[in-house]
Write the structure tokens for this entry.
Amino acid sequence: MSFTGLRPVILCLGLLTLPALAADKSTATYRAAAAERPTLLQIFAAAIKPKPVHAAEPAHRRRVRHVASAARKRKVRPAVAVTHAPVAPPTTVGAAVTPPAQLSEADLAAKGLELFNDVSLSGGGKASCATCHFSTGHTNNKTYVGLDVVADGDPNGRNTPTLWGVGERAVFGWAGQAPTLEDSIRGIIVNRMKGPEPAKETLAALVAYVRTLNYPTSWQIKEDGTPTVNASAAVKRGYDLYLGDGGCGTCHQLPSFDKKSRDDIGTGGKFKVPALHAVASTAPYFHDGRTASLRDAVKLMWEFYAKKMESRLPTDAELDDLTAYVGAL
């Protein structure tokens, strides 16, 4: 049946309902219910009302609306992209080297003392620095060719000097060939002890140690080399001879009592002028240990000076006084 044919039927049905509505129009209960429920006429009108025809919605829009609706229902938060900085694989170039911590002077000197007594510094593993200088850095009063002990006075021998006060000296070695303490120690290890080339750290530690070896103090001599008030009369007279007729101060200059240059005093070549501090305990004397006593060494030097300067020779009393002063240094 078409919509035109249904129109009279709907109109008749609507007229039939009017009496019932009028009968109950006075009741409040009906008015409230009627306000809440649709009328029969409204129901029929909605049933026969043609639906509007819409164009087909694109599929992609339906999908988008569906996804958005689902997201609202689930309250899904949008994903946040998380990025991490790339981590490069570790690269090792050669062996890892950790520089040694800087040592204090005291710690470096303590390490030097250990090395000073270490026989591995020598080629045969039988000798250390302390073999000739003991652990106190003094001298063992022997003459050597290499590491072999020879008779004092051997022209090839070298008498072991004390290391006390070595940090105050100008040049090093009997030949004065070493301009620095480092060069001197290296030369002893490599040439005399026939040991391997020492590392820089080894030399630094040994230098730090030997620089702590100071001269013993003398109650008769001041730091500048002059006699103290309480010095003996012989020491005071000897001091005058040292700077005067004895000529000692020409080479053994105050206050260090040595000199940078090398001199030939008729003992077989040019040798460094040794320091005279603590000389009383360093016998034998000269580079080859040719003189056993300090007095004989003083006599030899005065006689050499007198010959060179064409001056007088000493008396026995003057030798005693000069020896007293030099022995008090």
Q: What stands out?
A: The two ends are 148 Å apart (CA to CA). The chain has a mean pLDDT of 79.
